[in-house]
Prior knowledge:
By secondary structure, this protein is an alpha/beta fold. Helices cover 39% and strands 16% of the residues. The two termini are 15 Å apart.
Amino acid sequence: MITVIIGTNRPDSNSSKIALKLASIYRALGENVQMLDLTELPPELFLPSAYSEKPAAFSNFSDLVLGASGLHLVVPEYNGGFPGVLKYFIDMLPFPESFEDRPVAFTGVAAGMFGALRPIEQLQQIFGYRNAQIFPNRVFIMGVHKVIDEAGEITDEKLKLRMDSQAKGFIEFISKLKP
Length: 179
């Protein structure tokens, strides 16, 4: 089971549109996919007491990570970094089992010309620290407004091919890492 994580809690984000397309690619390749949408995080997770005692509603989210054979993060660039809510989500997950030896892939989404390169590199450092198995084929989507239409359909054929190639490669990467 691959869990696709939408790396922002911004409603109707471009990241969520790309994540939905990515999930459909995985499904077309015969994979079971779960979506983890940070817009659905329980409000009580943001109380200071959550550091010591996680709210019961958060277990659904941590289970989507702990039960995954691989994680694929779709991450926007906000001010040269990734959204704070994603870092907070990572901090709330169980340590070390959430990422230890877990395959992880990244897709960056940005309006600018670097396609969220900086946020993905920042996340690779965090996931590397947590001993995740980082899939090296990253996809950086520059000028996201130019490659998806209002309905969220990808209009750039080269991008579709890159996303398809990344998904196929990640499936193979996961299968090679299975004991």
